Structures are given as C-alpha cells and as structure tokens.
Amino acid sequence: MRTYRGFTLVELLVVIAIIGVLIALLLPAVQQAREAARRMQCTNNLKQHGLGLHNFHDTYGRFPPGASNDRQPFGTGGTNNWGMSWLVYIMPQIELGNAYEAGNFGSGAGYNTTAITNAVGNGTGKTPIFDVYVCPSSALPDKTSLSAPYSMIPDYVGIAGAVNGFGGISGATEYTNTAYGTAATNGILYYNSQSKFGSITDGSSNTLMVSEVGDYVYNDATTRIDYRPGRQHGFAMGCKGSNNNTTVLPTSADGRVFNTVTVRYKVNPGKNQFFTTACDDGVCQNMGVNSPLRSPHAGGVLGLLGDGSVRFIAETINNTTLGNLAVRNDGNVLDPF
C-alpha cells in the first residue's frame, strides 16, 4: 500500500510565514486603494457643493450667505433670531430638495430647531445623515449634534475669508467677539454675505470657497477633541442678528456664527498647536468660527475653489498663500500651491 507524506512542521511554518509576508505586503496596498477611493468620494462631494453653489448663483444672481439669521437667503424681515447656513440653501440644488421642502426652510422667519429637525427626520427627533456633507475618510464618531433636537454634523465649511494679520492680510472687515473669535467678510461665504462672481476680483479659480474640518484638533499633547464648527447644533445653523440685509453681523447678545470658517491657523495643525476648551481662540465645539482646516487625508485637505474645481491643499502651504487663497479681493498674486 502506498503511503502519503504530509507536511512537516518546518514546512508548515514556512508556508505560514510566506502567507504572513504576502499579507504584510498586500495590506498597505489595499488600505491605500481604499483611502484613494474615499478621497475620490470626498472630491465628488465638494464638486456637488460647487454645482449647488453655482446653480444657486444662476437662480438668484449671487451665492447664498455663508450664514444668515433668516430662513430666506436674502430676507429683510429682521428676525433677531437664528437663521440658516449655506448648507441648507444649496439643498434643492444637490438633490436634497425633498428634505428641504419637508423642513419648510423656505418660508417663515427664524430657525425653529425642533420643528425643522422633526420635519426633516420624519418625526424621529434627528435629521438623516446626508452623505454629501460627510467626508468618507473621517473617523470622527459623532454624526449628529450634541444638542437636541439632533441634526447631522457636516465635515465641510464655507470659507468666510482670513483674519487681519494672517499671512499679511489687512483691510478685512471683521466682527470680533472676544468670547468666540473673529469672523471676517473678505471671503465668499461669510455671515449675511451676498457675494457674486463680480465681487471675486482675485478670480474664482484663485479663491477658496469650501474646505474640510473632518478631523480632530488637540487640547494638549495627548487629548484630541472634535471641534467641528457644526458639532453643537448641526449643519443647518447659521447666525443670529437683527437684519439679514446687512453685510456685517449686527450687534447681538449672541455673536456666534456656525458652519463657516475665517482662516486664522495653518492647515492640519495636529499636535503642533493646542486649543483651549474656551472659545476665545475661535476654536470650540459650540461654534468654531476660526476652526483650522483639517482632514484625515494624508498631507493636507481638499478645497473647492470658486470656479467649481477641487484642489488638494498641502499642509505645508505657507500662511501668505493660504491667506490669499481665502480672500476674494486682496489683489495679491497667488503663488502656486
């Protein structure tokens, strides 16, 4: 009778070792391929935002305000209440029209969080997670706001401009609240803005309109925290004031602005810069008007320019170039980035 020889222990260990080496070689490639796909989806999200913003401009002759104090994008009611963010105003333009209509965003005055959230969320007390407002690479765990009623937290922000002094920027009209940071009006999507293509004198291809905040910042060397500008109240919150028809935030007991960023810090600061739990540096969970641009994509963030194109902005970009990129009308020549 013929006998068959099996694997020896040494041979088995060699085979296992070879398989382990192959897995070690292939796994990074698989992970990189997955991240490349996620980054491509993030790029597509920003392109959708660009289409929505451009379609809004085609309809109304101007871009939506980055944040307003009225449901109407250019209302004159003077509600002295909370209004909508740019993320709401482009919903009908990016196939979220049903959610927009359910929330009754286009009528009435002010921001009724409970009524809107229940309407959009079909009475569940929370809004759906709209994928177009979420970076697929983001590992931030919270997808809905901290305060009830619960609204989704976006990983993208409108660019309101850059603060005076950042990268040599000067002449910006600013609203400074020592408790909440500094909001400027020299970008495209600032509070109560009514920007048009004609007001982007630096050129739409040279001006940043939307970018990312889908990663952590650090309180200290070991403590990371989610300080996205929409974390407390979600994607729909704009700002508060007494007259939506002005281009500067009116004096108010509450000067917070949500879902826009005025550039004040470098891209992807990581552990190179720490932010306090107070809001005086403009970086906190209950607003974040100066929240640094950041993403889980290696080496930088994606940004939507005014012409609708999407570019990768390296974290090594110098402050001068980043400041010029955030401002629509500084007249400076933009260095390559």
Explain this structure:
With 337 residues, the protein is an alpha+beta fold. It has one domain. It has helices spanning 9-60, 86-89, 97-102, 113-120, 319-326, and strands spanning 81-84, 156-162, 174-177, 181-184, 208-212, 217-218, 224-225, 237-241, 260-263, 300-305, 310-314. The protein is globular.
How does the overall form come out from the CA principal axes? globular
- Measured between the Cα atoms of the first and last residue, the distance is 76 Å
Count of discrete domains? 1
Which regions contain 5 or more consecutive residues with pLDDT less than 50?
none
Structural class: alpha+beta
Largest sheet: 5 strands, mixed
Helix content: 10-25%
- Average pLDDT figure: 84
H/I helix tally: 5
Rounded to an integer in angstroms, the radius of gyration calculated over CA atoms is 23 Å
